[in-house]
Write a structure and sequence with these properties.
heterotrimer; A alpha+beta; B alpha/beta; C alpha/beta; A: alpha+beta; 4 strands; elongated; B: alpha/beta; four-stranded mixed β-sheet; binds flavin mononucleotide; binds iron/sulfur cluster; binds FE2/S2 (inorganic) cluster
């Protein structure tokens, strides 16, 4: 259970400054929290509420609406097997079934060693590569059973550590906007007192 | 028929996502030209191009949307990169492969509509798209192509990369705005909350799709007329389609509108190259939210009006089902999607789609009852009265009715298959 | 719903509802226009005092605006010229029945054990129009049965129909978004953040507006069935805002207060203090019999003892803000005529001089909300006058009211103030002098920002404000329930009933006979005199100086110093235990009369239950005392007071 660490508070402030209204930074900050701990802790939500001057209930309300935010610990690698229509047509049921056997867990569960969480998910927008999956949101297309096994073995052996960061990190690259290039006109003309309903 | 792509022009290039790769092939020239022309002239070119929205719905003319922008300061441009509809995968590759093109297009839109701020809303799960766009923006800022005093012209437009966290409904423009404001992504009722009048922070806002905006640099450089020379009527220019399912060559293809039939697209060796294993077609989707099309529609052109006449809508995700497909299972898959993605705001959608999903699940897995088919249609009717197309709705947004479309299509067309499921206690193909 | 009746003026539009043409204001919502003209459109999420969200979909009706009939939510649709509406068409009926069925498929239908049973819109709607047999054979949604959202409010998520009323109220009206929708779609529930209770001063309103029995109030749970309830309308006397309430009882026991929607004051809302305070009325601390030296006695004995103490001595009377206007009048008269003292004060050192409160140009709550600039020079409104806080907050959020707050510390209003000026106590006037931008219509809420701020300093600040903004008007910020009525009735040194000073009133009040010759002492003066042994009898008229006077030490010395302390009160307070004669009084909901709020608005109080034991109304006690002291107030009934 952790609040945001000082570095992330710094990052949070940077992100907040980009928006004409602070609450807009809520989802990005929840990602920062998830990146820090691998999931979104209650403490982090409370901390974010403080940073954005919201109530924790408001933060939870938003957080719990979105699929990607995990409110309990998950594996280092979250494997999302696509169950969308195109993947279903191309055999995602078999793939998911195979994945359950290979990992020894049911979809929705995490392996005992905390390495993998297996999920069946809705369409991930890679239908032309069906059946497909994503590991921590890194896409793998046209996945065969053998391909799945190789992927798991590689992940276990740490071979993909460079390509696939641990769960929570979606983007490893952040937009950098040097202060002198930032026009900051987005907030011009917005009413001063803003009570978000 | 034009086959030379517009938005996919740099797809084979390999380094289009880098600033160097992009500018080497004419990148940001459209923006430069736009600023020379001035906002009105850009608007006129876009109007002349006949460019319609590429999000894969009704196809609203882009220039007309911009004219609806209520005067007011500030106004915003929001790029809809939330692509989550089953079968769609075109915006993702556009963002991954050619992020600068999208940035340039958004800047042209902001410039033409007098906005100083663009929000680029990318679907949360698209990690690579986010990284590519973040890098592209960083580079473009550093190069003076975005932000303060763009290219030394005195034009100021900031672009902020924003990303979601997994919710299909956030693709709906008012839900997208709620989400961008840090809220639960629940749609607002239109009226009164038309984005062009009351959008982000209740200010006038333009929401356009990734592909729509990616066309702008080309249109500005080549002129609206050149774009309008492709296609007919409302179906002008080229458009991307994600072709998937039981075809031999699934992929993202950019084709000239109204120039090609579904049959050609599915069978042409340069495109789908035929149905797998030489099987017959059972049905195909033109968008998961819309009614299904069948064999008799294969000669319909990829033309907005023609598809509408055929009783559906020209979406961007074409999913081919061959005759080995279980219609109940396919429909259940789609209903499950919408039930899972309902935001929960409207009673009929929140309760109705889950109810439908439960009934479909029962039928597919063996506990269906004979009166279930009437029940499915009547529950559907309470979400979308009359079960007509285009849909009427008892809901705020069209997501609820979208869950009914596959049921109506499949029950009407494949009633026997449903009855067989009910009689035999489950799917005769035995997959569940 | 009192507010759905806007003045229909000439610039109206004509709308046809079920074949009948009606006139409506162009911005009026269809649901309200229809209701105003006699067509009730069913609804769950719509509430006239909150922004419509159009999400329950119960109010969808067929509307034709020239492009053919289409289903539209009446709660989101402003009327327009030529609109035709059919609330009874087959399409409308089918859609509404469909929504109702959807709401019921996951509803537990446990009406027989539900607090709301008998007054539940969902139940009513189902009985009136709903489908019979359920076609839903699947398992219903399950949640753990009622969970506490706070010590006062419980939530049964299985009954909840997700109408967004409570959540909207908490964020939009109360500004305390401590409950929220959690999760998505069919799994959505209303809940708090873990271990962060719904601690809002206004939480009880959510129970009142919940259209089903999902939210229940702990004090009311299982107490009564709606059909056993008896009710009268009255006014809340917890503070001086004077919210209208419906007082409900069951077998002579108060069980529930509900806010009543009156346009100028509370818009239907109550604060939790006001809503749940009735618990105290039946509490063990209630006085139900007279006491002399701590022992129960009969009225005759106690009144004689009290009369003796009042007759033979110099007398000071403090308190009176708890009284009705009628009580206050009787006591004012008793003091000035029979007892012959002007040492009366209904304020306990925390108020403002009566002349100032009564003499300043007054503003109403509506006027304060509509001001160009609202200056706050008073204590924390959220704490002291909670429903006024709601009104002002709404004016800020919805209408852009500009608030300038002058306060030594941060208050509940600070986040809504355009500007908050911090100053040190005593410096109020100079802080006012430094304000700029006081143009247009300026209204000031005037009270005591803190006890460290003397009344004189506040008066000087008010004067400074009038110099800068000569047209400024004032809304009193004094908090005690009927302090304004008590001041009006002359329960203040130097004042007589009708906002007349003692000196000016000698002529007017000739029928009262001889009046005290000079202006008396205020509460502090009275207590100081008592402490110094210069005042033999101290009357506590519903006052508890030991707990309530800013200088507790002085209060203690005063009670010790007085020869006799006579207390007239409802509760066994700390000060009451020191009194030698105690006369039990009836309270709110037990007596009729009137009360005056901080705007000067007079509203009626009605009796719902009988007082405990032999407790009686304060005015009767005054009449009895006068009689025993050989005088006659000339009052036998409440009507007599009004005719005077
Ligand atoms: C349920 C629903 C989901 C949608 N999802 C998307 C989406 O993922 N991407 C998108 O661009 N538009 C989506 N839309 C359409 C948007 O509301 C909006 O019309 C579009 O972004 C406008 O862009 P365009 O005019 O450029 O096509 C969706 C609409 C609905 C009703
Ligand atoms: S139709 Fe469904 S998804 Fe759309 S607003 Fe209503 S509940 Fe949400
Ligand atoms: S009352 Fe209109 S949608 Fe709920």
């Amino acid at each position: 259970m952790a609040r945001l660490n000082p570095q992330n508070v710094e990052l949070a402030r940077e992100i907040i400054a980009r928006y004409p209204r602070t609450r807009s930074a809520l989802i990005p900050l929840l990602h920062v929290a998830q990146e820090q701990d691998g999931w979104v802790t209650d403490d982090a939500m409370e901390h974010i509420a403080e940073l954005l001057q919201l109530t924790p209930a408001e933060v939870l309300g938003t957080c719990s609406f979105y699929e990607m935010f995990k409110r309990e610990p998950v594996g280092r690698y979250v494997i999302n097997v696509c169950e969308g229509i195109s993947c279903m047509l191309m055999g995602s049921d078999e793939l998911l079934h195979h994945a359950e056997e290979k990992l020894g867990i049911k979809a929705g569960a995490t392996t005992e060693d905390g390495m993998f969480t297996l999920m069946g998910v809705e369409c991930i927008a890679a239908c032309d590569g069906a059946p497909c999956l994503a590991v921590n949101y890194r896409y793998q297309l046209d996945v065969s059973n053998a391909g799945f096994d190789a992927l798991i073995d590689d992940l276990r052996a740490g071979k993909l550590a460079g390509e696939i960061p641990p769960h929570g990190t979606t983007t490893r690259v952040r937009q950098q906007t040097p202060a002198h290039r930032w026009s900051g006109k987005g907030a011009d003309g917005l009413p001063k007192i803003w009570v978000q309903l | 028929m034009r086959t030379e792509p517009i938005v996919m022009a740099r797809f084979e290039q390999g380094d289009a996502h880098t600033l160097e790769g992009y500018t080497r092939t004419g990148g940001y020239e459209g923006l430069r030209r736009a600023i020379e022309l001035g906002p009105e002239a850009v608007h006129a070119e876009v109007e002349a191009s006949g460019l319609t929205g590429r999000s894969g719905g009704a196809g609203f003319p882009a220039a007309r949307k911009w004219s609806l922008l209520a005067p007011g300061k500030p106004s915003y441009v929001v790029v809809n990169g939330d692509e989550s509809e089953p079968g769609f995968g075109k915006d993702r590759v556009l963002m991954e492969v050619d992020p600068h093109q999208l940035i340039e297009g958004s800047l042209i839109c902001a410039f033409a509509t007098g906005s100083a701020q663009v929000f680029l809303y990318v679907r949360g799960e698209m990690a690579l798209a986010q990284e590519r766009l973040a890098q592209a923006l960083t580079d473009a800022y550093a190069a003076g192509l975005v932000g303060k005093d763009i290219m030394g012209t005195g034009v100021d437009i900031d672009v902020v990369l924003h990303w979601g966290a997994g919710a299909y409904i956030v693709g709906e423009e008012t839900a997208l705005i709620e989400s961008l404001e840090g809220q639960r992504g629940m749609p607002r009722l239109k009226p009164p909350f038309f984005p062009a009048v009351k959008g982000v922070y209740m200010q006038p806002t333009i929401v356009n799709n990734v592909e729509t905006l990616s066309n702008l640099p080309w249109i500005v450089l080549n002129g609206g007329a050149a774009f309008a020379a492709m296609g007919v009527n409302r179906s002008l220019g080229m458009r991307m389609f994600t072709l998937s399912g039981h075809v031999n060559r699934p992929g993202n293809y950019e084709v000239e509108l109204a120039s090609m039939s579904f049959r050609e697209l599915f069978t042409d060796p340069a495109y789908g190259a035929g149905i797998r294993d030489g099987n017959q077609l059972k049905a195909f989707l033109v968008g998961a939210s819309f009614p299904w099309l069948f064999e008799e529609h294969l000669d319909v052109k990829l033309d907005i009006d023609e598809v509408q006449q055929a009783g559906s809508m020209l979406g961007s995700g074409l999913v081919v089902m061959d005759d080995t497909t279980c219609a109940v299972r396919a429909a259940w898959n789609l209903v499950r999607f919408f039930a899972h993605e309902s935001c929960g705001k409207c009673t009929p959608c929140r309760e109705g789609t889950s109810w439908l999903e439960k009934i479909m699940h029962r039928i597919e897995t063996g506990t269906g009852r004979e009166d279930d088919l009437e029940l499915l249609l009547d529950v559907g009717d309470n979400i979308t009265p009359g079960l007509a197309w285009p849909p009427k709705q008892t809901t705020i947004c069209p997501l609820g009715p979208s869950a009914v479309a596959p049921i109506v299509s499949s029950v009407h067309r494949f009633r026997d298959e449903y009855l067989l499921h009910i009689k035999e206690g489950g799917c005769p193909r035995g997959r569940h | 719903m009192a507010d759905t009746d806007p003045k229909v003026d000439k610039t109206t539009v004509t709308v046809t509802i079920n074949g009948t043409a009606i006139e409506a204001n162009p911005d009026e919502l269809l649901i309200a226009a229809a209701e105003r003209t006699g067509t009730y459109i069913p609804r769950f999420c719509y509430h006239p005092r909150m922004k419509p969200v159009g999400m329950c979909r119960m109010c969808i009706v067929e509307v034709d605006t020239g492009r053919g009939p289409a289903l539209q939510p009446a709660c989101m649709l402003p009327v327009s010229e030529g609109m035709t509406v059919d609330t009874e068409s087959d399409v409308t009926k089918k859609a509404q029945d469909g929504v109702l069925e959807f709401l019921l498929i996951n509803h537990p239908l446990d009406c027989p054990v539900c607090d709301k049973g008998g007054e539940c819109p969902l139940q009513d709607q189902t009985l009136a129009f709903g489908p019979g047999e359920s076609r839903f054979i699947e398992e219903k949604r399950h949640f753990e049965k009622p969970i506490p959202l706070s010590p006062l409010v419980y939530m049964d998520r299985e009954r909840c129909i997700l109408c967004d009323r409570c959540t909207r109220f908490s964020s939009e009206v109360a500004g305390d978004p401590l409950i929220s929708f959690i999760n998505r779609g069919n799994e959505t529930e209303v809940n708090t953040f873990p271990d962060d209770p719904f601690a809002s001063y206004f939480s009880g309103n959510t129970v009142q507006i919940c259209p089903v029995g999902a939210l229940t109030a702990v004090p009311y749970r299982f107490k009564a069935r709606p059909w056993d309830l008896d009710q009268v309308e009255s006014t809340c006397t917890t503070c001086s805002v004077g919210c209208r309430v419906a007082v409900q009882s069951s077998s002579n026991r108060l069980v529930r207060y509900l806010g009543v929607d009156v346009d100028p004051v509370n818009h239907g809302w109550l604060c939790d203090k006001g809503r749940f305070d009735f618990e105290a009325i039946g509490s063990d601390d209630r006085l139900d019999t007279p006491l002399v030296n701590g022992t129960a006695t009969d009225w005759s004995d106690a009144l004689t003892k009290a009369a003796d103490a009042l007759e033979a001595a110099t007398v000071g009377i403090i308190g009176g803000a708890r009284l009705t206007n009628e009580d206050a009048y009787a006591w004012s008269k008793l003091a000035r005529t029979v007892i012959g003292t002007d040492d009366v004060d209904c304020q306990l050192g925390d108020g403002l001089p009566a002349e100032v409160v009564l003499g300043m140009p007054r503003a109403t709550i509506d006027e304060a909300c509509a001001a160009d600039v609202l200056v706050l020079l008073t204590a924390d409104i959220k704490e002291e006058l909670p429903v006024l806080y709601l009104r002002l907050r709404e004016a800020v959020v919805d209408k852009g009211l500009q608030i300038v707050e002058l306060s030594p510390t941060e208050t509940g209003m600070t986040r809504y103030a355009t500007r908050s000026v911090r100053y040190s106590p005593g410096q109020a006037a100079s802080a006012v002098r430094e304000l700029d931008g006081l143009s247009g219509n300026v209204v000031c809420v005037l009270g005591r920002p803190s006890l460290a701020e003397s009344a004189d300093s506040v008066v000087a600040a008010a004067a400074a404000l009038l110099e800068k903004a000569p047209g400024a008007t004032f809304l009193s910020g004094l908090r005690r329930s009927n302090v304004h009525g008590a001041l009006d009735m002359g329960l203040a040194p130097g004042m007589l009933p009708g906002r007349v000073t003692l000196d000016d009133g000698r002529g007017w009040f000739s029928s009262w006979g001889d009046l005290p010759s000079s202006r008396g002492r205020d509460a502090r003066g009275i207590l100081e005199a008592a402490a110094a042994g210069q005042l033999q009898t101290l009357v506590l008229l519903g006052a508890d100086p030991l707990a309530d006077f800013p200088d507790r030490d002085l209060a203690r010395r005063a009670l010790d110093g007085a020869t006799t302390v006579v207390a007239i009160d409802c509760f066994r307070t700390e000060s009451v235990t020191k009194a030698s004669v105690v006369l039990p009084a009836s309270t709110y909901a037990e007596k009729a009369g009137s009360t005056t709020n901080l705007e000067g608005r007079v509203s009626r109080l009605n009796a719902k239950v009988t007082p405990p034991g032999t407790a009686r109304d304060d005015w009767m006690i005054a009449v009895e005392l006068a009689f025993r002291m050989g005088g006659d107030l000339g009052i036998e009934t409440l009507d007599d007071i009004w005719s005077e």
